Each structure stands twice: as C-alpha cells, then as structure tokens.
Amino acid sequence: KEESTDELEEELKRVTAENKKLVEMLSVVCENYNSLRSHLM
Amino acid sequence: MDCSSYINTSLDLNINPYRVHEEVPKKEVGSKLFSLGMTKFSLKEESTDELEEELKRVTAENKKLVEMLSVVCENYNSLRSHLMEYMRRNPEKELSTSSKKRKSESSNNNNNSNLMGINNNGNSESSSTDEESCKKPKEEENIKAKISRAYVRTEASDTGLIVKDGYQWRKYGQKVTRDNPCPRAYFKCSFAPSCPVKKKVQRSVDDQSVLVATYEGEHNHPQSSPMEATSGSGRSVSLGSVPCSASLNSTAPKVVTLDLTNSKSSKDSKNNEPRKDSPKLPKNLVEQMATSLTTDPNFRAALVAAISGRLMHNN
C-alpha cells in the first residue's frame, strides 16, 4: 500500500510538472500565434 | 474483525477524517494499539484515494492541455504558411515588413523548436522556409535581369490602371508609394502558371494621364492574343516586342524603356520628333533597340562577320 502511495505521489508529481510545462508552452504558442496574426492584420 | 467495514467507513473520512476514526475503533476493536494501526491504515487508504483522484484530475487536465496545444500549434502553422504564401506573392510588401518578420521569426524559432517535440510539424516547415529563402534570391536575380518599361497615354477620364498588351494579367496588389500619390497596381501573368513575369502599373508623377507599366521577367509562352498596347480606349501601339527587347545576351541587368505616349503634350524634349497617331514601329523603340544592339559586343562581332563575309563573297 505504501509503495503504491509513493508511486502515486511520484506519478502525480511527474504529471503535475508536465502539466506546468504544457501550460507554459501553450502560453508561448498563443503569444506567437497572436503576434503572427497581428502581422497579417 | 471486519476489515471491510473499515474500508467502507474510510470513504466517509474524506469529509471529516478524525471524527470517524475515533469512533470506529471504540465500537469495533478493544485494543488501542490495533485501533491506531487501523487508523494509520485507513489514512493511507484515504491518501491513496485522494492521490488517485488528484492524479486522475491532473491527467485529464494534461490530456486537455495537449489537445489544446495541438490545436493552437495547428492554427499557428496554418497561419504561418498563409503568411509565407502571402509574402511570396507580394515581394514588395515583404521588403517593408521583413524587419518585423525577422524579429518575430527569430523570437519564434526557439519556441518552434519546443513545439517540434510535441507535434513534429516544425521540422519540415523550417526546412521548407530555408529552401524558400535560398530560392528567392536566384529568382529575383533572374527577374531583375529583364526589366522593361512602357509609357502609355490614357484618356483624361480614364482612372483605371489597366494596360492591355496582349497578355493576361492577374492583379494581386495595389499600394501607394511615397514618391507618387497615385496608386501602383501589381499584376502577374496568368496565362501560364509558371510564367514569372510581373507588371507594375502606375500613373506618371509628371503627367497623370500617362501610365507607366514596368515589366519584370520574360514570358515563357506565346502571346495569348496579338493585341496592341492600350489603356482602356486609349491609343494603340504594338507591344509584342517589349518583354523580349531586354533579352539580349548580356549578363548585366538591363532596363529598356518604351515610351508610347503622344509627344504632342509630352514635356520631354527627347520625344519631340513628330509622331503619327498609330505608328507601326515607334522611332523611339527603334532607336533604343539600335542602342541596345550596338552596345552588345556579341552583336557587333556577328555583324562584322556577316558584312565581311558578304564582301568576301562579292569579291
């Protein structure tokens, strides 16, 4: 049980870090997209 | 001992864990130690469940984010390809916005490299961009090598920017330049899709009734209709030789100017020779062709060879 809890915690940490990264990337892509769009307008 | 009841009650502990854990051991188990152990066990269960729930939630969020990211990336790439296409079609505008674009491109390069890891779209695109940038200068050099210009007089009421020269043109842009308040229209030969010839038409700064048509490149197809150069209902002069007049064997870029305006109202002193209303071959064009030919060393050599050969034959 303890092992599974530790594993879960590890997995949760990993997924949360991945989540954070994805959010950062998404914000960057959105910024680029808006910049490009403003160039076209 | 009923362990299953512990597990079942532990589910309720999510709301108020400590209260339930204190009650249950008193009822079910007499041993304090065992009750503590079970509390510990149920807490573990609780935390495991919570972790699982949290993991599920974060994983779902993760999935959603990936989907959103892929959608935004797709949109970005689509928009970028549109921009590239637009830039390719409007090279004049590209020059004015190149500095801005370069900035955004350079700032985007790092970000794109990050994105490549996700959707693998960036690699092919970046390479194609490099290829385009390599191809462009060569094409521009070829086009710049063959430039010809034609002046066409129009009616005073005619405000259009159309010069009919026997080729089919597709208008792809119009803009106003600083040096000339009249708009400049950009055309591309639409007769053959591979034809690189472009045409710029703008009214002259000195004389607004004169249209200046600048041709870039050489047609790689025959003239669609043997028309004459006109501007709407204006005068007509054969323009079939205009794009070809600059295709002499010279490496240096040449600009051949063909003045099709009437000299009556023209202020230029160089065009003051009397002209008919519809001359078959303008004298100005002949002079310019002669000038172009005489300055070409290959032509001179060929001419000398031909004359000397004829003289030898007569002798």
Describe it for me?
- The complex is a heterodimer of chains A (41) and B (315).
- Chain A is an all-alpha fold and 41 residues long.
- Chain A contains one helix and no strands.
- Chain A is rod-shaped, with a radius of gyration of 18 Å.
- Chain A starts with a helix and ends with a helix.
- The model of chain A has no long low-confidence stretch (mean pLDDT 84).
- Chain B is of the alpha+beta class.
- Chain B has a domain at 147-216: N-terminal domain of TfIIb.
- Chain B has helices at residues 3-12, 17-28, 32-89, 91-119, 122-144, 283-294, 297-314, and strands at 146-153, 169-176, 183-189, 198-203, 210-216, 228-229, 237-238, 254-260.
- In chain B, helix 1 (3-12) runs antiparallel to helix 2 and helix 3 (32-89) packs antiparallel against helix 4.
- The radius of gyration of chain B is 39 Å and the shape is elongated.
- The chains are: A mainly alpha (41), B alpha+beta (315).
- Chains A and B meet through helix 1 of A and helix 3 and helix 4 of B.
- Chain B: Pfam families: WRKY.
- Chain B: Residues 132-142, 265-280 have a biased composition (Basic and acidic residues).
- Chain B: Keywords: Coiled coil, DNA-binding, Nucleus, Transcription, Transcription regulation.
